[in-house]
From TrEMBL:
InterPro entries cross-referenced by the UniProt entry: DNA-bd_dom_put_sf, MerR-type_HTH_dom, MerR_fam, TipA-like_antibiotic-bd, TipAS_dom
Keyword set, alphabetical order: Activator, DNA-binding, Transcription, Transcription regulation
An example molecular function term from Gene Ontology annotations: DNA-binding transcription factor activity
Domain named HTH merR-type: residues: 2-71
CDD domains recorded: HTH_TipAL-Mta
Database matches in PANTHER family: HTH-TYPE TRANSCRIPTIONAL ACTIVATOR MTA (PTHR30204:SF90), REDOX-CYCLING DRUG-SENSING TRANSCRIPTIONAL ACTIVATOR SOXR (PTHR30204)
Protein name: MerR family transcriptional regulator
Length: 247
């Protein structure tokens, strides 16, 4: 039986606006539209929506999802099996991290002892979920150069890079309630610009675009704001000031 857009939104726990957007970009077009303009979704539409939401859960962009599900070779059962496999791997990784958190609490209380290696069990940043989006925005050259520089480093050097970036995030988080154009803020954001260019090749405008992504993409916002709520927005503004002064 066909379902109206509000019914589908409630069923899938998404907004009506989201469904309208999917229709507008050709990602999910309802099989029927009444003379009054009401969208009616068929069972096949609901099956496709399920696929879209699974892909979104795995951080695929809407552009990539559309490319995948509109491909003539797309196999729904094969995709579901892939979703299941990846989600099981994700669950295993999250379970491991939760166990590390529980042990860390006991370690802080002095009830057990954890080695430094045990404190970081469950973390795996060997793959960058934002790499494809970076390629689409700035081209392969910037990303390939960053990967090449990082891959040429030893594991110890790569950890040192990660630690340095986290230190910059921490210092910027302490400034996030100040004026992004202040000397202190710009000194910190210049350090961030220099750090990024040690890994790749970012023009001031690309740097500005990256800052905007920190706010536009909730995945970036969520990760950056772990260092302090509002840090992503502060960095966006500070990076824009930096780019303006370099232009």
């Amino acid at each position: 039986m066909a379902m109206k857009v509000k019914e589908v939104a409630e069923l899938a726990s998404i907004s009506v606006r989201t469904l309208h957007h999917y229709d507008e970009i050709g990602l999910l077009t309802p099989d029927e539209v009444t003379s009054a303009g009401y969208r009616l979704y068929s069972d096949a539409n609901l099956e496709m929506l399920q696929q879209i939401l699974f892909f979104k859960e795995l951080d695929f962009s809407l552009k990539d999802i559309k490319s995948i599900i509109t491909n003539p070779s797309f196999d729904r059962e094969e995709a579901l099996n892939m979703h299941r496999r990846i989600l099981l791997e994700k669950r295993q990784r999250l379970d491991h991290m939760i166990a590390t958190i529980d042990r860390s609490v006991l370690h802080m209380r002095g009830e057990i002892h954890m080695t430094t290696k045990e404190q970081f069990e469950g973390f795996d940043f060997s793959e960058n979920p934002y790499e494809q989006e970076a390629r689409e925005r700035w081209g392969d050259q910037v990303v390939d150069e960053a990967n090449r520089k990082l891959q040429n480093k030893s594991a110890r050097e790569q950890k040192a890079v990660s630690d340095e970036m986290n230190e910059i995030y921490t210092r910027l988080a302490k400034l996030r309630h100040t004026d992004p154009a202040s000397d202190e803020a710009q000194e910190g954001i210049t350090e961030w610009y220099t750090r990024l260019n040690n890994m790749g090749s970012y023009s001031p405008e690309a740097f500005r675009g990256l800052g905007q992504m920190y706010v536009d993409d909730e995945r970036f916002t969520r990760n950056i704001d772990q260092f302090g709520k509002g840090l992503a927005l502060f960095m966006r503004d500070a990076m824009a000031v930096f780019a303006d002064r370099k232009s």
